[in-house]
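C-alpha cells in:
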C-alpha cells in the first residue's frame, strides 16, 4: 500500500522524535548513574574518614573490644544512609558489621585491604558479603600513627541502580507525555501542510511545476506574474523577447515591474486593485501590444496579478493576410461581373443583328484580356495564383498602370519550400508596392515588369518598376516591421512578411535601383525544401 505524503511525514516525525527521545533517555540514564556513583563515592569516603577519626572508636579498636565497638557503632549506623558500615582490625577480621553482627570475628571479604593497611584511603566497587557494592575504606590509626584497623562504608550497587532507575522513570513519564503531545502536534501539522498544498503529493507538485514551466515557455503570448508589491515572480521567454530584455528570467525575478516596463496607466495601482482587464491597447517599451490583467486571489486575499500581452503587429499581419485573400476573391468577383456585363452587351448586339458592331466590340474588349488570361492560365498551375495575377492586372489597369509579364514566366508544380498562401502573399505585396510606386511617379506611367519562373533549382520572382524608388533614409530598414513610406492606414507589414517567408524558405532577396528611376526586387527561393541555402538579404544599390 502506497502511503500518502501526510502519513509519510507523520510517520517520519514520529520516528524521528521517538529515536531522539530514546537516545536522550539512554544518555540520561548513564549520565545520571555516573553522577550518582561519583556523589556516593564522595559521601562514603567522607563518612569513613569521619568515623576513623573518632577517639572513642580508636580506643576501642586498639583495645580490640568488639562489644564496645558494637554499642558505639550501632548509634552511628542508625543515622547513616549507607548500605553497610564495617569495622575491621589490622588482621582483616570483623570487629563490627552494621547488617550482620554475627559476622564479627570472621574475615573481611574483597581482597582490597592491603592498600588500606599501608595507610591509604581507597574507593572501589567490589563484591563483598552482601553483594557488589561501592565502598570506601579508610585506615584507623592510633596516636603513634600506626594502622590499627579499617573502616569500610559502602552502598550496594543494586541500591544505587534503583535510585537511578527511579529518576529515569520519572523523566520517562514526562518524556512519554511530551512525545504524545508531539505526536498530536505532528498529526495536525501534517494535516495543515497537506491542506496548504491542496492535497497534492510532492511528486505531483514537482510534475505540476515542470508542466507549468514548459507551458509558460511554449506560450506564444508574453506572460508576467507579479506579487502584491509589484515584483516580478515569473516571466516567460515570449515576454522577454517582446520587451527586448536580454537578462535571463532568474535575474529579472524580484525586480519591480516599473523597472522593466515603462510606467503607464495600465499599471496604475488603483485600477489594478479594483478590476481585471482584457485586450487593452497599451505601449510596453515602445511596442504596441494588446494586454490583459487578471488578479490572483487566495481565500479572498489579493496575492498578485497575471499579465499577458501580444504584439499588435502580429495581429495586424494576420489581418493583412486575410484581407489579401479577401481582395483576391473581390478581384475575381469584379472580373466575373465585368465579363458578365460584356457578355450581356454582346448578347444584345447579336440579338439586334448588329453583327459587325459585335465583332468590333469583341475584338476591342477581349483582345488584350484574352491574351492575358490565356498567358496566365497556361503558365501557372495554381487557380489561386492565376486569380491573384488577373486581379492585380485589372486593378493596375484601373489605376493607369500596366503589368508586363515576361514570356519566361512559369510555375507548373507546387513549391515544397513555400505554402501557396505564402507565395500569394509575397507576389501580392510586391505587385502592390510596385503599382503604388509607379502610380506616384510622374506621367506617363511605364509598365511594371514581372518575372515569375520556377526552374529545377529555384523559384525566381522579379518585379521591376519605374516608380518613385526607395528613400535613402529607410533603405536599410525596409524589411523591418512598421517601416513604410505610406501615410494612411496601417502599413509597414508587406515587406516584413516577404522577408519573413523568404528567409523561412531559405531564400535570398536582392533590391537594386532601376535606372533611371524605380526599384527592382529579385527573390531567389530554393525549389527543394530540404536543400535550402543560408538566407540572405542583399542591397545592391
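Residues out:
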Amino acid at each position: 500500500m502506497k502511503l500518502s505524503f501526510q502519513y509519510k511525514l507523520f510517520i517520519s516525525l514520529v520516528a524521528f522524535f521517538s529515536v531522539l527521545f530514546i537516545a536522550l533517555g539512554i544518555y540520561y540514564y548513564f549520565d545520571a548513574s555516573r553522577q550518582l556513583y561519583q556523589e556516593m563515592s564522595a559521601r562514603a569516603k567522607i563518612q569513613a574518614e569521619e568515623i576513623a577519626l573518632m577517639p572513642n572508636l580508636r580506643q576501642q579498636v586498639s583495645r580490640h573490644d568488639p562489644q564496645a565497638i558494637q554499642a558505639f557503632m550501632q548509634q552511628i549506623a542508625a543515622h547513616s544512609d549507607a548500605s553497610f558500615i564495617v569495622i575491621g582490625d589490622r588482621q582483616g577480621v570483623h570487629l563490627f558489621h552494621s547488617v550482620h553482627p554475627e559476622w564479627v570475628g570472621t574475615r573481611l571479604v574483597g581482597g582490597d585491604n592491603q592498600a588500606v593497611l599501608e595507610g591509604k584511603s581507597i574507593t572501589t566497587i567490589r563484591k563483598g558479603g552482601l553483594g557488589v557494592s561501592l565502598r570506601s575504606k579508610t585506615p584507623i590509626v592510633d596516636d603513634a600513627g600506626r594502622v590499627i584497623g579499617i573502616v569500610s562504608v559502602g552502598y550496594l550497587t543494586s541500591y544505587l541502580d534503583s535510585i537511578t532507575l527511579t529518576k529515569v522513570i520519572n523523566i520517562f513519564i514526562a518524556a512519554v507525555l511530551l512525545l504524545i503531545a508531539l505526536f498530536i502536534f505532528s498529526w495536525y501539522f501534517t494535516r495543515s501542510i497537506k491542506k496548504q498544498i491542496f492535497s497534492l503529493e510532492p511528486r505531483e507538485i514537482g510534475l505540476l511545476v515542470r508542466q507549468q514551466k514548459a507551458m509558460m515557455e511554449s506560450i506564444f503570448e508574453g506572460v508576467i506574474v507579479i506579487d502584491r508589491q509589484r515584483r516580478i515572480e515569473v516571466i516567460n521567454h515570449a515576454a522577454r523577447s517582446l520587451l527586448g530584455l536580454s537578462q535571463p528570467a532568474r535575474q529579472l525575478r524580484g525586480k519591480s515591474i516599473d523597472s522593466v516596463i515603462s510606467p503607464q496607466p495600465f499599471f496604475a495601482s488603483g485600477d489594478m486593485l479594483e478590476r481585471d482587464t482584457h485586450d487593452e491597447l497599451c505601449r510596453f517599451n515602445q511596442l504596441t501590444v494588446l494586454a490583459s490583467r487578471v488578479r490572483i486571489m487566495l481565500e479572498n486575499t489579493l496575492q498578485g496579478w497575471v499579465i499577458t500581452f501580444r504584439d499588435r503587429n502580429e495581429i495586424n499581419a494576420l489581418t493583412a493576410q486575410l484581407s489579401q485573400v479577401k481582395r483576391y476573391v473581390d478581384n475575381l468577383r469584379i472580373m466575373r461581373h465585368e465579363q458578365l456585363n460584356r457578355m450581356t452587351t454582346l448578347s444584345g448586339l447579336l440579338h439586334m443583328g448588329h453583327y459587325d458592331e459585335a465583332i468590333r466590340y469583341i475584338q476591342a474588349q477581349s483582345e488584350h484580356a484574352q491574351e492575358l488570361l490565356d498567358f496566365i492560365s497556361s503558365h501557372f498551375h495554381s487557380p489561386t495564383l492565376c486569380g491573384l495575377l488577373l486581379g492585380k492586372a485589372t486593378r493596375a489597369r484601373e489605376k493607369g498602370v500596366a503589368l508586363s509579364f515576361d514570356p519566361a514566366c512559369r510555375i507548373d508544380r507546387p513549391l515544397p519550400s513555400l505554402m501557396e498562401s505564402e507565395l500569394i502573399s509575397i507576389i501580392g505585396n510586391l505587385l502592390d508596392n510596385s503599382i503604388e510606386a509607379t502610380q506616384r511617379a510622374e506621367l506617363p506611367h511605364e509598365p511594371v515588369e514581372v518575372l515569375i519562373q520556377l526552374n529545377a533549382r529555384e523559384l525566381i520572382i522579379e518585379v521591376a518598376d519605374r516608380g518613385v524608388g526607395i528613400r535613402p533614409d529607410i533603405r536599410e530598414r525596409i524589411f523591418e516591421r512598421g517601416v513604410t513610406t505610406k501615410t494612411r492606414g496601417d502599413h509597414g507589414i508587406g515587406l516584413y512578411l516577404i522577408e519573413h517567408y523568404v528567409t523561412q524558405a531559405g531564400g535570398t532577396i536582392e533590391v537594386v535601383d532601376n535606372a533611371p528611376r524605380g526599384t527592382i526586387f529579385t527573390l531567389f527561393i530554393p525549389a527543394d525544401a530540404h536543400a535550402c541555402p543560408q538566407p540572405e538579404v542583399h542591397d545592391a544599390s
